[in-house]
Amino acid sequence: MFSQLFSVFLTYVYTQNCYIREQAFTLRWPVRANTASSEGLDAKSDKNKTLWRHSMMRVHAKRAGVLLSGLMLPALSHADWGMNMVPGVTGTSNEIFSLHMTILWICVAIGVVVFGVMFWSIIAHRKSDDREPAHFHENTAVEILWTIIPFVILVAMAIPATATLVDMYDTSESDIDIKVTGYQWKWKYDYINDDFGYFSNLATSQDEIYNRLEKNENYLLEVDNPLVIPVGKKVRLLLTANDVIHSWWVPEFGVKKDAIPGFINETWTRVDEPGIYRGQCTELCGTYHGFMPVVVKAVPQEEYDSWLAEQKAAAEKERELTQKDWTMDELMERGEKVYATACAACHQADGSGAPPAFPALKGSAIATGDMAGHLDIVVNGKPGTAMQAFGEQLNEADLAAVITYERNAWGNNTGDMVTPKEVFDYKNQQ
Amino acid sequence: MATNQTYYVPEQSKWPIIATVGLGLTLYGVASIMVNGSQGESTAGSWALFWIGALIMAYMLFGWFGNVIRESRAGLYSPQMDRSFRWGMSWFIFSEVMFFAAFFGALFYARVFAVPWLGGEGDRGSSNMLWEGFQATWPLLNNPDPQAYPAPKDIIGPWGLPLINTVLLVTSSFTVTVAHHALKADNRKKLKIWLAATIVLALAFLVLQGEEYVHAYQELDLTLQSGIYGSTFFMLTGFHGAHVMLGTLMLIIMLVRIQKGHFSAEKHFGFEAASWYWHFVDVVWLGLFVFVYVL
Amino acid sequence: MSAVADTHAQAHHHGPASGITRWLFTTNHKDIGTMYLVFSFTMFLLGGTMAMVIRAELFQPGLQIVQPEFFNQMTTMHGLIMVFGAVMPAFVGLANWMLPLMIGAPDMALPRMNNWSFWLLPCAFLILVSTLFMSGGAPNFGWTFYAPLSTTYGPPSTTFFIFAVHIMGISSIMGAINVIATILNLRAPGMTLMKMPLFVWTWLITAFLLIAVMPVLAGVVTMMLMDINFGTSFFDASGGGDPVLFQHVFWFFGHPEVYIMILPAFGAVSHIIPAFSRKRLFGYASMVYAVGAIALLSFIVWAHHMFTVGVPIAGQLFFMYATMLIAVPTGVKVFNWVATMFRGSLTFEAPMLFAVAFVILFTIGGFSGLMLAIAPADFQYHDTYFVVAHFHYVLVPGAIFGIFASAYFWLPKWTGHMYDETLAKTHFWLSFIGMNLAFFPMHFLGLAGMPRRIPDYALQFADFNMVSSIGAFMFGATQLLFLAIVIKCVRGGEKAAAKPWEGAEGLEWTVPSPAPYHTFATPPEVK
Ligand code: HEA
Ligand code: HEA
Ligand code: CUA
Ligand SMILES: [Cu+2]
């Protein structure tokens, strides 16, 4: 009876899961196995040779996956389950992948030998078969041998590993430098050579997270503004953080590096294929650590150039916004948007917060009280709490808009408004 | 290795559980003083907990050690038992060494790696982009963010009080050894004089160290809050000072016991343990003097 | 002449006191051992329940059962409770019970301190668990509590957590001092160091590791305490400190810590495999040297947990090579176990089943450890479920199976009864299947890119997570069976002989079962 119920339950959940999985079939990390197929192979460049080697690795990987799944979970084996590392789209990631497969197979081989001997003993030397135990308990030659052999194997592994590592650490001669800053819980990308930057926030809706809406295929791996880089260029990333340690990871680049507050870590990547690549923050960074994706869009150089020009123009416009005269309605409209992206995660869309961790803004003493206090907490944050100093993260127009919005939304009808210019003055008098 | 001798297995004892309750209340009290204090809440209850715990601890220490001393004087302990105590004390001192090693490690790391990196040198030198104008120096007289951590005006030079303190401690290590020899020679008078001298030197050290702290806080603005220099300085010298205090207390207790006629020329492990501890405190100081003050 | 002078010995007839004071005031190594074991199992259930919360939330994508904040608290408390509450005390409990019996000592060297070491643990965990009910919640920064998440950004309860760690540390250090003093000083005449049973050897070395690294843990939490409450800047760059300093100090403790959790299991397995193979342990001397080598190497590999933090390349290479080297002595141990079984006369009672599974599954965990040690590859593995898979393979079928194997092996000696073999075998097989189902798919998840410490995940991870959760529930529920088996065994059952296992060797089998309250009042002679 109980077991029946249980299996009905399982079937139900399983089918539901299959459904979800089907939605995700076109998966991120799309299979690019044919990039190195015939059309590329006749080319003479070294690059294509490596590509070919990599595609062979992919075949190995597939075989390994199938083998493992065949061994471990025969009933469940399924090609699209994603059970191995991806070879990725950069030289680094491919090297790592080949290292990974090499060590994996070495370990499997050692395992086969060791467990083979063991199982033979288990099967062939049972007391129930009236086996008499042998009497040996020492053999110096054998013991020396099985100290040396593993050592040699390890040396063999260490050599390619060292080469790869040295390569990964070489951040010299980059074409573009981008500063990546981790914030609780978003990334900021600053194009330091071009003097603009922007935040990249999770774009998945709360409704999907709380199962009120169907999850889309990029569930939790989508952002509003991805990092954009040109293909074929060496991009140097300068990683740091604003609050706690984060870690920036894109599996397909083979790049993972911690972003540490107060320090800058360098790493680099060169992506050869245009596409959208997704990853996540991989260092526990507080409550919403799981909701801090990384999305990178690699585009051809021309596309990159025009995007760059657009961004610079937009940045210039933003700066002008501060000077512009704003009306209450304009501020409220803009404020609602800013609020939704920057504040609603904690204070909720309806301003109700999640006390006691996150105070309600609806009717809050600060949001309905003295303007200076409100400016202070939003611009400077409250150290030691999750309430960050938004003065560094939002521009004056956004700050003015969101503060005006908070003072007038959800029945906080104070009628107050603050202009970007006033915010600018407030920030600079400090 | 055991020999065929009497081994003393003590009867049931209430002291450990009392010690547990005492320590638990004390530390719970301390933690809630800190937490409530930082949130601006009343700490009266926390202090009460702390004091109750501390009193229980004091009661326990007298009781437990009293117990051990009584057993020891009743001749219940064999040489083998004595060896157990020796092993116990040696490994305890080793654990203390490792505790200090953590703080020395922090000091070396800050000096050799973190501060130079922040100042733009070495592998992670690009970090300096975040702290424009920051220069790596040691002693660190300007912090990366002077607003958050105002730097000290100056630091304590090694050749004043610290040097005197070094002399005091080294001498005290010497005097306690003389006292030990006197004990072994069963010369009680000499023993008392040299042990008393050790205690005087120890107290003098503590007084001077206190003076140094007052000077640092009041005149130099060298405080726990003045960046990594102040942090490592006060943690190392502070924990050392606390250990000196503990060692001095041990020595005083030894003097009291000697007055009461405890110990013999052959059996005096309590005294030896205290003197081992004292030497350990001395050696740590030498490390401090070199790495915190001189270099 | 009785060689044990007990001030009340005559009055008590060497028996335990009655009532609660027997446990509160005891100085008897067997009583204290029992208390450690009971405490440890309680913590295992508590930590396991938290793991069940984690697995339930991860059963499907989306947030269903708990909020992210609480999820983080569960992960943190699960790790802390399992490591400090379940595994370490279990081994100390085994040490208390078995060391004096194995070396022919009347008790531990410092019996009153022994009692204190134990009672500090419930005290520490009372404080730790009470943080769950404090405002701002329990620690939520992972069992590795990296600064500044745990300092500037930690909940108020962090201060309580710090003091709880201090108390655990004091307990462990005193326990370790006791072990060393006992082993070095109380061995029966004739038992030279190279005649000591391996469990004794592994514990001697474990105790050394404990004394060397627990104070360092105390040091690092003290620095946290100062950063939080007294304005120091150890882990804050604006004052010249470095968050990475925290990690160096933590892992200087943390890596030896993981060997603290496995070496005693190595020791126990080195008794069990020969016993059920009816053949002497192969390569005794190399076993001892291997443990020593592992312990020494464990001090110079810590930064393999920090390959992605930006350690300069020379350091990176050093730590990679040193870490890889550990595979050599560990391999020697594995080969020796296999060689012991080779051409033996094998039977498969529950202790042997657990021991054999230990060797196989620990080795799999070791292999994934070796993969993690390859620094460039670790850039892809780090902080994913591949790491979670690795350490559960060395901890669950490693440490925990080692403990189960020991428990079944010595239960007859402790209780005087044989446990129910059929139930025990059921316990083994369900655990074996459940555990592999729970943790093997985590390798795939990690390789496919699922980060650890997240309450919700992208859709392509859904299937393996579900499999894993089902396995975890199965494994968890099975442990209640173990509880039942032990209770049944304590209350009755077939009487156990002094030496219930045909192939077993050692002094502990020379005393009756159950072992009398006081044993080896006169040290036995070892030839
Ligand atoms: C009992 C606990 C235990 C044990 C024994 C080990 C053993 C090992 N561990 Fe593991 N480890 C953990 C517990 C343990 N670990 C924990 C808890 C973490 C995570 C902490 C956290 O972040 O929360 C971790 C994380 C961890 C990392 C960091 C991963 C990361 O965060 O990115 C690394 C990296 O090098 C590592 C390596 C190793 C190695 C090389 C061994 C070696 O000792 C293994 C050696 C054994 C073998 C190799 C198998 C047998 C050998 C042979 C059969 C011989 C022949 C073999 C070859 C030549 C290949 N471990
Ligand atoms: C010895 C140590 C040990 C042990 C034994 C375990 C045992 C288990 N662990 Fe744990 N684990 C760690 C040490 C350990 N773990 C550490 C150090 C971490 C890292 C923490 C961090 O990231 O900071 C971790 C993290 C960790 C994670 C990752 C969490 C995350 O990254 O967010 C997961 C996820 O599945 C997990 C699962 C389990 C499961 C299912 C068990 C099972 O084996 C548990 C089985 C036991 C029981 C279930 C209890 C017995 C049964 C009952 C009480 C009856 C009730 C039963 C039911 C309701 C079914 N563990
Ligand atoms: Cu940011 Cu995790
Ligand atoms: Cu490690």
Features:
heterotrimer, A: 430 residues, alpha+beta, Helix Hairpins, Immunoglobulin-like, five-stranded mixed sheet, 47% helix, elongated, C: 527 residues, mainly alpha, Cytochrome C Oxidase, Chain A, 17 helices, globular, disordered N terminus, binds heme-A, binds copper (II) ion, Cytochrome c oxidase subunit 1 (chain C), copper (chain C), heme binding (chain C), Cyt_c_oxidase_su1_bac (chain C)
What report would you give on this structure?
- Chain C: It catalyses: 4 Fe(II)-[cytochrome c] + O2 + 8 H(+)(in) = 4 Fe(III)-[cytochrome c] + 2 H2O + 4 H(+)(out).
- Chain C: Pathway: Energy metabolism; oxidative phosphorylation.
- The complex is a heterotrimer of chains A (430), B (295) and C (527).
- With 430 residues, chain A is an alpha+beta fold.
- Chain A folds into four domains: 2-72, no CATH class; 91-168, Helix Hairpins (Orthogonal Bundle); 176-317, Immunoglobulin-like (Sandwich), CATH 2.60.40; 324-429, Cytochrome c-like domain (Cytochrome Bc1 Complex, Chain D, domain 2), CATH 1.10.760.
- Chain A has helices spanning 2-23, 38-41, 46-72, 91-124, 140-168, 206-209, 301-323, 328-347, 365-368, 371-380, 396-408, 420-429, and strands at residues 176-183, 186-191, 196-200, 227-230, 235-241, 246-250, 255-259, 265-269, 275-280, 293-299.
- In chain A, a hairpin with a 4-residue loop joins β2 and β3 (196-200).
- Chain B has helices at 15-38, 44-73, 79-118, 161-184, 188-220, 227-259, 269-294; one strand at residues 7-8.
- Chain B is globular and about 70 Å long.
- Chain B has 295 residues and is mainly alpha-helical.
- In chain C, α13 (350-373) packs antiparallel against α15 (385-415).
- Chains A and C meet through α1, α4, α5 and β7 of A and α4, α10, α11, α12 and α13 of C.
- β1 (7-8) of chain B pairs parallel with β1 of chain C, so a sheet runs across the interface.
